[in-house]
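Researcher: Please generate the 3D structure of the following complex. Treat every line as part of one assembly.
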Amino acid sequence: MWIGSEPLDLRCTLMDSAQSFLWRQSGEWFGGVVDGAPVWLRRAADGIEAEGGTGIPALRRYLDLDRDYAALAEEFADVPPARRAMALYPGLRVLNQPPWEALACFILSANNNVGRIRGLCEALSGRYGERFETPRGTLHAFPAPERLAEAGEDALRAMKLGYRARYLASAARRVAEGFPLDALRDMPYEAAHAAMLTLPGVGDKVADCALLFGCGHASAFPVDVWVARVLAGWFGCSGMSRPAMARFARERLGPHAGILQQFLFHAARTGDMGPGELPAHGGAKGR
DNA sequence: ATCCAGGACGCTG
DNA sequence: CAGCGTCATGGA
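Model: Done. Output below.
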């Protein structure tokens, strides 16, 4: 099934850019669960090809194929480091993930590294998520909040979530018992952010990740250690607190600041934009 | 052994 | 408001 010919780098977007931790690669194919159905994606000569899934519209939406990234780059015409970062990854897109998936995975991301976050997500999906046998291999959905709530803190701690076990179990229970996660999509950013902060294990940064990656809030601008280095080195924000940096970025970069954030994050983490005076301490971390 | 990772939280000034 | 110690885990 052919789903589009827009620029899309599957490996960069699904595997390397650390916005989702739930995809796996098998040769030229990338497997995951979208809209409740297993799907494999690959780049064909004339576009992106899919096997499985629930149809073209859902996949196009998940992959953000209907957003014009070239037009978006124009919004940053007067911000040189932004233009450079976007030019670096022509096929990088910001996924539209389900809210719970994004929220839960980024609760696990706190003070953690990408490789281990992926391992935890994979373990949770394998143990508590729905399982799909496909011709190309087994895929697991990320578990629903009800499943993790019923699993409980102790079981999650036994899976090496560390102190995040209580956060995830509590957040799962809150969501399972009616926290209006889906409604955050239609709230103004400030209100949605404030609502996110009431969940356990969710501070400013995780809230912004969940809003950006899971709730369609393109202005949400998560500031982690890497992005803080970028803002300090390339935007003169050294000395600002992280919430102050996030506020600065939203005001300076506009309604799609968060989309750009993903490019800045990836550039910083891979070192692709050169030493650019990032308060260095080490080089790039592989995938 | 010490530092680090897509931080959050509680406590103290 | 800001600063600071603590919280698990595993890799470098």
